[in-house]
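Team,

Forwarding the record for the chain on the shared tracking sheet. I've put the sequence and predicted structure together so nobody has to dig through attachments.
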Amino acid sequence: MRVSKQELTDLIQTKLTKAGLHEEHAEVVADVLVFADAKGIHSHGAMRVEYYAERIAKHGINNQPQFNFEETGPSSGILHGDNGAGHVAANLAMDEAIQMAKKTGVAVVGVKNMSHSGAISYFTERAAAQDLVGFSVCQSDPMVVPFGGAEAYYGTNPIAFAAPGKNGKCISFDMATTVQAWGKILHARSKNESIPETWAVDKNGEATTDPFKVQALLPIAGPKGYGLGMMVDVLAGVLLGLPFGNKVSSMYHDLTEGRNLGQLHLVINPEQFTAINQFKDNITTVMNDLNNIKPAPGFDQVYYPGQNLEVIQADYEANGIEIVDDIYNYLTSDAIHYNAYDSKDPFAE
């Protein structure tokens, strides 16, 4: 079904507030989730609300965190998240990074001890909206087999990047270092749909199209995705003195405990290298050049990174955001959560 952006935002914010999250924090979380749903990234949208609500209600997300920014150098700092809502901690860290990059030309800001932060392109696109280049990486649950391995070690460890063009547009991408993000598996489960055989493996290490039989995800492009996942883990975990690799906390292990995750923002001010108008003109030229490339058989056109999501967003803005009926029914119900996630095996059938 389809609902308006405002209705979806209000429903999410209300549910999270009832679960115990501070109203201002619930507003930020709702904004990040609706940002994802409005772009068709449903794996990081409203489908996450019940999980967050359960974790909030069980105090695994601190509803009264003492956020603290520690400036560690003229162009670096750490936002201590106190296991509050990751969306809020990462957003505050991006605030600091934006201001720092405008002042010094570059900023590297880590987020230490936070919960899940959603679609991280939300934060990089905030930088692009300020005529800055944004880059962000984040830890996640160990559920990916390293290339050549039979046991999970790294998480899906996403990478996001955004650079501004003219007229408020930007080049933007947000990718897991796996063939697909775990949220895509959850989305397939919620709709009872099959998945491509290239996404994941079952308990025997064999490719599976059944999302309920998934026991591990595959890195994108084999050793290349494996290397990228390792890079993210170093930047968002090892560098910040946090648990890393298969020591990163599980999303479902114990919802009464904080997850102590890490994220890292890198923000660059193009004016340190070239005139900002020239930079934005050139990014727009890149966009136009890509659009004008002859499409391959089976394709209508070449899109610049993020453009296909703009098309979805325009449709949703005009006609409402599409969400699964079961999720809407939960959001409009009186239930805070159904105790469905605590100690859950994410791979269980």
